[in-house]
Design goal:
The protein is α/β, with parallel strands linked by helices. The protein has nine helices and 14 strands.
Length: 323
Amino acid sequence: MRAADSLLEAVYQAELHTDDEPRYLRRQKPVEIRRKKFTGRSWLFYRRLLVVTLAGGAGVAVAYVGGKFLLYSPRVLLTRPEQIEVLGNHVIGRQAIVDKFYADRGRSVLRAPLGQRRGAIESLAWIEQARVQRILPNRIRVEVTERTPVAFLCSGTELFLIDAHGVILDRPTDQEFQFPIVTGIGESVPRDERERRMQTYQQFLKDIDLVKSGSSERVSEVDVSNARDLRVVMTGLAGGAGVQPVTVHFGQGDFVGKYRMLVDNFSLWQANAGSIQSIDLQYTRQVVVNPEANVAGSPAANHSGRRSVARQAAAGPPKQKLH
């Protein structure tokens, strides 16, 4: 009996274990492995990438070869002075400009520092402005604007030319100029002060031509050393064939009014004074004829200065005082 019971117990336990397991097992879904295929779109992308890469490589190669050609090829080298074209020079010689490119001989025109060369050319006194450009494959063009002199400059025993900006110029020996002589300016005077004095000079010439056309041609010398008194030597004030020089002190302004008064009254002053060597128009309401002679002849001249001149002017002929 015990053996039978043990057998039944074992069968029962086996059935219990069997019931705990699922009767049906679902089939698991297999993992799908997709393989990427080259579609038409992918081929288009790679074709474009290939074209861009090839084009970039070709561009780099062309740039490299072209760069070597432009920098080192004999066809682009600056080897002869004739390769430099100079335009606009009339006073300054061509060679003076070409010499500024001496350091570029045997080099490519692309390696020439045009900015530096332009500055070197403009450092020449006669050059006011310069323009430098490359003309490929192997030429350089230089266009210059020369300074325009407006007067002779007497400095010591030397005679130079000077332009409206106060730049002192060497006088070329192969050209002729007709200008008044300016004094009172030298190399020691700062450039801006020279320019200011030359502006006064030019304004004076312009103003007297407004009063009477051609009057500036009668000016032979202008002293600009004193900013408060422009001293001018003129001829032909008496009209006709009279060429006697007369020194006129115009002061520091109102050149139109003073010169008009001079032109309108010079004959009258000459009739009263006889010979006129100088006229002082510095003062607003008076004119002094031959002031240097009057001051020299006055016992009080060494003590009274300008006031002595004013008293002499009021005394009578040959002095006059106009109101």
